[in-house]
Fold this sequence. Notes:
Elements: H1 2-15, E1 23-27, E2 32-36, E3 41-49, E4 53-64, E5 67-75, H2 83-94, E6 98-107, E7 116-124, E8 129-137, E9 140-148, H3 161-164
Antiparallel strand pairs: 1-2, 3-4, 4-5, 5-9, 6-7, 7-8, 8-9
Amino acid sequence: xxxxxxxxxxxxxxxxxxxxxWKSFKYPELGFGVDFPAQPKTxxxxxxxxxxxxxxxxxxxxxxxxxxxxxxxxxxTKRPLDGPTLLGEAEFxxxxxxxxxxxxxxxxxAGPKAQYGRRIVVAMKDGSKRLSEVYLAQGKLYQLDxxxxxxxxxxxxxxxxxxDSLIFDLQHDWTIPPPLPANPADGPRLLRxxxxxxxxxx
Length: 202
């Protein structure tokens, strides 16, 4: 009986999906940091736009099951006056690959170095779902894409952690929690430090 119970338990554990081991990665040379659920790989690609032209881009990608996480950084520091136009074109291009589900404003971490951009969710023509955020900061275009394949869980709440963890303030120590409220009624007590994109444990 005990052997049967152990066999059943082992089968259940084997069938359960492995929880992603999210880790924080900083890229000082690119001016940002973000969380990935798997070891990312960095390579070079090309960003294309009618106004942007064909520009070299740094691409950082990680794959976790049926989800692909990709950060693209394009250097436009030599075109400071074109910033708003380039950001607008990037937002427009993200809406052209399928049916737009949502198109809303987005923000990186809290604090004086917070940046504002757009979050665009698209049901792609191939049946996948793509959640994107795009920013223009420090003369660079930052685009973060989470693409869930047609076979993946397209309502996975963890998928947005990639975008939610974006930070530009690399000097801030995110392991230090903000001050606790003087009166418990003014807010929840922080049980441990919380980084951007990470839910507070109850």
